[in-house]
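quick one if you have a minute, typing this from the bus. below you get a single protein, a line of residues and a line of whole numbers that encode the local backbone shape. could you go over both lines and see whether the tokens make sense for that sequence. anything you notice is useful, everything is just below.
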Amino acid sequence: MHLSKKETSGLWFAFIGVFFFSLSLPMTKWALESFDPLFTAFFRPIMASVLAIPLLFIRRVPLIPRQYLKSIIYVTVGTALIWPTLIALALQRTT
């Protein structure tokens, strides 16, 4: 099976994404040794925003169509706020 350059780069990006996501729990557990669980939960999305927003403006990425905004907000609240908070609180109570 021969993959195109685009497919190969897509697989590499997927591998890198899965790799860094797999570090999420161990790094959160490690951060809890020094920081409050709520700080660790909210620091991540804040730092991601600080890095992503200027990049989005520099690259002139178009805004999300208004019809999708409600869904995007729900997903963002769940994945960037609720999930990290619950994970940090759970990992604080484990060994």
Observations:
- The radius of gyration is 17 Å.
- The chain has one domain: 24-92.
- Residues 24-92 form one domain.
